[in-house]
Write a structure and sequence with these properties.
Layout (H helix, E strand, L loop, with lengths): L3 H23 L7 E7 L2 E2 L3 E3 L6 E2 L1 H12 L2 E7 L2 H9 L5 E2 L7 H4 L3 E2 L4 E10 L8 H6 L5 E3 L4 H10 L9 E3 L3 H10 L4 E5 H10 L4 E4 L5 E4 L2 E2 L6 H13 L2 H15 L2
Parallel strand pairs: 1-5, 1-6, 9-10, 9-11
Antiparallel strand pairs: 2-3, 3-4, 6-14, 7-14, 8-11, 8-12, 8-13
Helix pairs in contact: 2-9, 8-10
Length: about 270
């Protein structure tokens, strides 16, 4: 019969090797305190926006990327930019990483590098809470008096053009705004009749403005959000590794709970 002490020692050695392998798998790159210049718009509740009380930039994307940087031993230098120049600015290397609920698609992949998806959402029609003239995209499109607010060059704009209206990007029924928040303000004041947005953002606006908004109809499409990087960036792989860990250990779920439910309930 094998010596029990030797068997236990062998088992302990095998366990130690197994633990080392797991630890190695979980180890993340160390960026040595590197400063990462990150850019957003501060106009996309609840992903990135200005705290009404302090003016400080807050939201899920802030928390998520700050957590990524912490795990990679890096610092974040937060900057602001308008949406219409953000992708080009990141492409040109003015910023290291950009985020603004940016949908991953092939056209953008030809210009910049993407991280893995950090959030999957669906496009919905946000309307005023008392809206009764239409109940979905088809009944909205049927009345030429109905107007949709959008921000040029965004997924919401293209869904309005191709999934709601007639495919004409110059359709006068699409009213363009400089920021996403401005289009929602126009909806609230009655200047437009719907704004298209992802589920997460709709939850944010509904929660922050009780009794003001609702969503109608079926989802008009599904999209994945990713961080954008200068082509060839050495940050993509480390960020993806940290993002995978954040998803696996429950941190991502906690951030969604905080920004999609708890923050809204506190408004």
């Amino acid at each position: 019969m094998p010596n029990l002490t030797k068997l236990l020692a062998a088992a302990a050695a095998i366990l130690a090797v197994g633990l080392s392998a797991v630890q190695a798998q979980d180890a993340l790159p160390d960026l040595g305190g590197r400063s990462i210049i990150a850019v957003t718009e501060n106009a996309y509740v609840p992903l990135n926006f200005a705290d009404p009380a302090t003016g400080e930039g807050i939201g899920l994307e802030y928390d998520l990327f700050n957590e990524i940087a912490k795990r990679l031993n890096a610092k974040v230098d937060w900057q602001l930019s308008s949406w219409d120049v953000m992708i080009q600015a990141v492409r040109d290397g003015q910023f290291d990483v950009g985020m603004d609920g940016i949908t991953i698609n092939d056209e953008r992949k030809s210009q910049i590098d993407f991280s893995d998806s950090y959030l999957t959402s669906q496009q919905l029609m946000l309307v005023r809470a008392d809206e009764s003239r239409f109940t979905d995209a088809a009944s909205f499109a049927a009345d030429p008096a109905n107007l949709v607010g959008a921000q040029a060059g965004t997924t919401n704009f293209y869904v309005a053009v191709y999934n709601v209206l007639d495919g004409d990007e110059a359709n006068p029924r699409i009213k363009l705004f400089d920021t996403f928040g401005a289009s929602v303000s126009a909806l609230q004041s009655g200047d437009v009749d719907t704004v298209l947005m992802d589920q997460t953002s709709a939850n944010g606006y509904i929660g922050a403005n009780p009794g003001a908004f609702k969503v109608i109809g079926e989802p008009l499409g599904t999209e994945d959000f990713g961080f954008i990087f200068t082509p060839g960036s050495d940050l993509v792989a480390p960020v993806n590794a940290a993002l995978a860990q954040i998803k696996a250990d429950g941190t991502m779920e906690a951030l969604q709970q905080k920004w999609f439910y708890e923050y809204n309930a506190a408004q």
